[in-house]
Amino acid sequence: EVKRDPKVQVARLKLPILGEEQRIMELINENEFLIVAGETGSGKTTQIPQFLYEAGYAEKQMIAVTEPRRVATVAMSARVGHELALTSKEVSYLMRFEGNVTKDTKIKFMTDGVLLKEIQSDFLLSKYSVVIIDEAHERSVYTDILLGLLSRIVPLRRKRGSPLRLIIMSATLRVEDFTENTRLFKEPPPMIKIDSRQFPVTIHFNKNTYDNYLKESYKKAVKIHTRLPEGGILIFVTGQQEVNYLVRKLKASFPYKKDVDYSKLITKKPVAETDTALDSEPEDIESDDDEVEKEMKRAKKARRKAKKKAKELPKINLDDYDIPEDDGQADLVGHDDDSEGHLSDSDIEDDILAPEIKSCRQPLWVLPLFSMLSSSKQARVFEQPPIGARLCVVSTDVAETSLTIPAIKYVVDSGKKKMKVYDHTTGASAWRIVWTSQASAEQRAGRAGRTGPGHAYRLYSTAVFQHDCPSHHPPDLCRRPVDDLLLQMKCMGIDKVVNFPFPTAPDRLQLRLAEKRLEVLGILEKHVSKNKNDDEVLKVTSLGKAVSAFPLLPRYGKMLALSHQQNLLPYTIALVAALTVPEVMSGKPDSWPATGNTLLLGDPGILLRAVGAAEFAHVKGEEELFCAKYGLREKAVKEIRKIRKQLTSEINLSVSGVNVSVDPEMKPPEDSQARLLRQLLLSGLGDQVGRKIGLHEVKEGEDKRKYKYAYHCGELEEPVHLHSESILRKTIPEWVVYQELYETGGEEKRKMVMRNVAAIEPEWLPIYVPH
Ligand code: ADP
Ligand code: MG
Asked: Where is the composition biased (Basic and acidic residues) (predicted)?
């Protein structure tokens, strides 16, 4: 009954997974659990839901597919819908604050967090006949919890006579964490390995490792484009700013002009492929010698020498992946003010390459890819570049496994990724640029071999690979605070979270700290069990139940839950929405004249005002202009709008007698309201309070000027400073509450900074008083 487009059919038939359809379906029909392992691009995500659909699994119930990333959720539902020739009414997606699910939905792609939320209201997941956990190797927090829960739900469904299938899909072969975890599965579930059309990828290491990987990335891309045969280039760097920066530089070097006919250029590319690998380029090109002629001569000689050596270079076996680890959130939050210092133009300009750039007439079709990019712009990487131009995608680790970009032949791997690191005792977080895992490096390299033999250029040495790159990074669950999922699990009646069958159990201390934070916030409370031998357990309070209804971190849920007054609610909603979206403002707050009320509300007040004004600009159709003018990130503003809408309708539905709306002309809050809003902020952030360090407290001999904006925070010994752009630098209040604590300035200039700060009154502080 499926009527596929002939073009789609041709493309599908090229995927080896299609030859396995019968075997896969037999395994699914005969087993409740199945693990599907196969390399990225082998067709797991796009094809297996279609097999299930055609086998009738969507007739009475739905097929659920979870993704750890929003990018993939949208893209994959669209792709599968397209391949099945069905509409988005039938193949739909659902993620936090956004979706197109209908009552006719057959295949439902969703973020893993959304399915976890659904389990809270329907523990047996009775709407679904099969659940596919995709990208299980990413080890996202929600995926890990889902696996634990599903390992228990599946047997329950069997007992009820309505079996549920669980398919775990992973891009790698490192699936022992799932198969050999006897807490998770008593018997190891069956596994099927999907072969894929993987062409050999030659790995080239740099001889030396340079700090400036952006410069190296740029140079490598230039060399590939000017010297090597046709084929797309994929560059991996760490974050959004780096991506944009490289895109700009490469576009400027090889511009694409609309009115030029480039179609004749393609045939001019020389030489047989085997001779052109860039590792037969000498390493000494990386030297600072800027005399072109001398350089060329040396290059020729070294090229000959290196060609011999090339044979000895390590090769990876692409059928033997290890686990990759990447942080889906890597570019969700921007870094701190001065961490972009390495992006100066003079840094990257390289005279040696200038003649090559000049003499190359072929344009480079350069596209950015990162998770915060709008979906429509992300979709451009799937399209053919214009005739005559070479495709070049500059990406964060989004392109590592979630999305398959067609026709990539060259991968340039900086070897770096951005990782959020938490200090579990202080709660402070910092973004660090770290070496990728070896497994990630192999995933990245593999992207070059999907359509033909390829080359991967690692911009670091084999020594770095062996000694500095860990084989894989620990899963998210073991790295970040777990407050939200702890609350969700408690609401599901899982009292002893330490006993939960996690694929990899989080640190017990971390769980205990999260419990403590939730207890301080009044979301959990101690219960002494009747059985005296049992430990006391923390259970959810009635406030906690209200809080957990919101798809937000418990802190923000609490602010909403306590915001009873009708006329205050729209402000709380807007404020919470703005606080949960990272990196809203990139401009200086100076561009926002602060008036009485906003100043009273501190940085969150500025944020509130910006959001209100952006909404007004939006109804007038001037959002884009407005955002550019005031340094607001447009995608963030759109995201905030969605959250405001959803939270507003959720509150109207769930709290009787309440009927609020999103007012595009929201007036600034009145004094009394601003005061209440600050109290609400404190209610959610009550464990994050700071007291100004008086100058008399500064030790003899220390520079007092360094303490101008310094505060005591909690148990922290060292001073914490107001963010350099905090509006409160104008007033420096005695007591403050802050949204986030983080570290800046690298090793020498290390400094603790608080972000989104508001003044509070000391008499509001029943909960917590720092020393
Ligand atoms: P896996 O899940 O195993 O990584 P996918 O099912 O995502 O693989 O992709 C299978 C193939 O489908 C890829 O090799 C890619 O070429 C193609 N493909 C996936 N998404 C798209 C898309 N949006 N447009 C064109 N081709 C796509
Ligand atoms: Mg996939």
From this structure: 333-345
